[in-house]
Design goal:
mainly alpha, 2 domains, about 290 residues, MetI-like fold, cell membrane
């Protein structure tokens, strides 16, 4: 008994040490980015990046928030698209997932196959672009950044599996009490499947927040650029910032190009870092609770 206890302790401490080192390796690049964002540009050019800043400077953040008006607007566009898009996607995906999780729905398997088919095949980029711009008129509109991602088939199946674990007797009791399907979904099913709902919501939020593909295809108006698309432009060609961009009050020679790369990265991932701890417990449950039907 004592030997087993000692072995368990050794395994536990070894796991803690290994996971701590792994976490440290994952965190170090973040510290390097943050250090580079608050380090003087000349020092970076001469000495490169380091974990700790040596010559402190906030010129990169000053340029982002005060010297380049389009980046501030892009940040608000991204926030709007993420919040509205995630809410809208969760409602539509939840309605579809709940419908397909009910065994009494006619042609349930056929409808599920149609949704699954979209994971395997699609119409191609050119037909999608023609439909989106010519027929749906989503070009140069904020809805063009939201509607194409409204329903993700993988997320729908994940949410459907969570809904399928809810006891049918509970839903039937609600129907007997006079609740309609919409009330059942939002007042009973969603709360009972909260880990799955939060997990899928996190997936949608990350998809909207990190997206640069839709604005690349659909957006020409600079007022509708999301921050990730501007980040891609900065990383692909620093000439955009060096030339002053749109609404910049900085001279090209005053632009801290290298530190701006790091600063924009910190700005774009910052909100997600602060949001994730609040949904982490649901995210962990969402990956495990659906494994066994209770």
């Amino acid at each position: 008994m004592k030997n087993n206890y000692v072995q368990d302790k050794i395994v536990t401490y070894t796991a803690y040490v290994f996971l701590s080192l792994l976490a440290l390796v994952c965190v170090i690049p973040f510290f390097i980015m943050f250090s580079g964002s608050i380090t003087d540009e000349k020092y970076l050019q001469l000495n490169g990046y380091s974990i700790l800043p040596h010559v402190f400077s906030l010129k990169a953040y000053a340029y982002i928030f005060f010297g380049h008006s389009s980046i501030g607007k892009a940040y608000w566009v991204t926030i709007f698209v993420t919040v509205v898009g995630t809410a809208f996607s969760m409602v539509i995906t939840g309605l579809l997932a709940y419908s397909l999780s009910r065994k009494e729905l006619k042609f349930r398997n056929s409808l599920s196959f149609i949704v699954f088919f979209t994971i395997l095949f699609n119409g191609g980029l050119v037909p999608w672009y023609i439909v989106t711009t010519k027929y749906l008129h989503l070009g140069d509109t904020v809805w063009g950044l939201i509607l194409p991602y409204t329903v993700n088939a993988w997320n729908m199946f994940l949410l459907r599996n969570f809904f399928s674990t809810i006891d049918d007797a509970m839903l039937e009791s609600a129907r007997i009490d006079g609740a309609n399907e919409v009330n059942i979904l939002f007042r009973i099913v969603f709360p009972l499947a909260l880990p799955g709902v939060m997990t899928v919501g996190l997936f949608y939020a990350l998809q909207y927040w990190n997206d640069w593909w839709l604005p690349l295809l659909l957006i020409n108006d600079q007022k509708l650029y999301p921050v990730q698309y501007l980040l891609r432009m900065v990383l692909s060609s620093m000439q955009y910032i060096s030339s002053g961009g749109v609404g910049s009050t900085y001279a090209a020679s005053a632009v801290p190009a290298e530190s701006i790369k790091m600063a924009i990265t910190i700005v774009t991932i910052g909100p997600i870092i602060f949001v994730y701890p609040f949904v982490q417990k649901y995210f962990i449950k969402g990956l495990t609770v659906g494994g066994v039907k209770g």
